[in-house]
Specification:
Length: 168
C-alpha cells in the first residue's frame, strides 16, 4: 500500500467519524464544529486527489463563510432538547435503511469488478504544466455552460428574494 492510499484512508476515516458526530452530537454548537472538521477533512481528501483548487474553495467558502453563519444561527436558537430527543427514535428505522443502502452503493462503486477497471487505470499522472483550475474552467464554460448559467440565475433569484424579505 502506497503512502497516498494511506493518507486517503486516514482522511476518509476522520471524515466518516466527523460526519457521524455531526448527526449524533447533543450540543448543536459541537455539531457545527464537527461539520467544520468534516469540511476540512474533505478538503484534505481533495488535495490528495490532486484537486487543489476545489479544496481551497471548499475551505474558503464553506468553512470561512457558511460555517460562521451556521454558528451564529445555532447560538441564537433556543432548542428544547427534551422534545428533540423524543422525535429521534421514530426516525431510527428509516435512518438505518438509508444508511444500509448508501453502504451498499459505496461498496458497488468502489468494487473493481463492478467498474471493470483496475486501480492503476483510475489514477493518471499529469505533466508539470497541467492545471486542474484551467481544466475546471474549460469544462464549466464549454460542456456545462447551460447548467452553470441556470445555477447563476437561481442564485441571483435567491439573493433578490433574501433582500426583498429583509427589507420588509
Amino acid at each position: 500500500m502506497q503512502i497516498s492510499e494511506l493518507t486517503f484512508y486516514f482522511f476518509s476515516l476522520i471524515l466518516i467519524i466527523g460526519a457521524t458526530r455531526v448527526i449524533t452530537a447533543r450540543n448543536p454548537v459541537h455539531a457545527v464544529m464537527f461539520l467544520v472538521l468534516t469540511f476540512f477533512t474533505a478538503a484534505c481528501i481533495w488535495v490528495t486527489l490532486e484537486a487543489e483548487f476545489l479544496a481551497i474553495v471548499l475551505v474558503l467558502v464553506y468553512v470561512g463563510a457558511v460555517m460562521v453563519l451556521f454558528i451564529f444561527v445555532v447560538m441564537m436558537l433556543d432548542i428544547n432538547k427534551e422534545i428533540e430527543k423524543k422525535k429521534y427514535w421514530k426516525w431510527l428505522l428509516p435512518i438505518l435503511i438509508i444508511f444500509g443502502v448508501m453502504l451498499l452503493e459505496m461498496f458497488l462503486v468502489l468494487s473493481e469488478r463492478t467498474l471493470g477497471i483496475g486501480r492503476d487505470q483510475i489514477a493518471s499522472n499529469k505533466g508539470l504544466d497541467y492545471s486542474n483550475t484551467k481544466e475546471l474552467g474549460r469544462l464549466i464554460y464549454t460542456e456545462y455552460v447551460y447548467a452553470f448559467e441556470i445555477a447563476a440565475v437561481i442564485l441571483l433569484v435567491a439573493i433578490v428574494a433574501a433582500i426583498a424579505l429583509t427589507l420588509r
